[in-house]
């Protein structure tokens, strides 16, 4: 890992007008450099000092962006040496956001859902991801259980920016899913995913009608639209009733 990227090449994709948080915009700018081939695998990135000068942001912002991209496997950080573009993995899942009702109906099965919780909560009470929704003043909370042929297949917990969806609490989510409602209000421009294997909480096991120690798949997601942050979601699937699928490329 000896070749350095061109430190004088500005990060054109970094847009100060984007509604995303600064660290997310820095991440996007770096990802675009990698995606377009401007920064090749094993190339050394500009130093943190050079990046904060190029982008006009704080060291904390740059550090967070680099740390998260390292966790996501796009960068490799070597103590005392620098940060490098990681070698691409052989395959990577392409996570797309879909309406679960449409997925179930596309299989020729029957979808229905039950609303467990629909309420307003304090704006800083979001435990879905390891960071709160930045700058959200009012927030709605919902828990919905989705059924496929009368078998529960997903718990969908959402924290929603009330500014984006002020009438969220008045919706009948047994007729239209939260996803379908939100995507009409605010088409998504950016998202973050975290995927984990977990054991569901006792209350979740009851809702999913599974045994306490049955493995589950957890997808945590945070999304933005052109209007700002839409919200975050915590999706729990019983491992025996769900598999993760995606499209792969070389």
Structure description:
The chain is an alpha+beta fold. The protein has 2 domains: 22-85, Arc Repressor Mutant, subunit A (Orthogonal Bundle), CATH 1.10.10; 100-241, Chorismate lyase, CATH 3.40.1410.10. It has 6 helices and 8 strands; from the N terminus they run αααββαβββαβαββ. It has helices at 22-35, 48-55, 59-71, 100-106, 178-185, 202-208, and strands at residues 75-78, 82-85, 111-121, 139-148, 151-161, 188-199, 215-225, 228-238. The strands form 2 sheets. A 6-stranded antiparallel β-sheet has the order 3-4-5-8-7-6. α1 (22-35) packs across α3 (59-71) and α2 packs across α3 (59-71). The radius of gyration is 20 Å and the shape is globular. Mean pLDDT is 82; it is low at 89-94.
CATH class descriptor of the largest domain: Alpha Beta
Write down the overall geometry.
globular
- In CATH, what is the homologous superfamily of the largest domain? Chorismate lyase-like
The biggest sheet amounts to:
6 strands, antiparallel
Low-confidence stretches: 89-94
User: Number of helical runs?
Assistant: 6
Order of H and E elements: HHHEEHEEEHEHEE
What is the total tally of β strands? Answer: 8
> What is the third-level CATH name, the topology of the largest domain?
Chorismate lyase
CATH architecture of the largest domain: 3-Layer(aba) Sandwich
N- to C-terminal distance: 22 Å
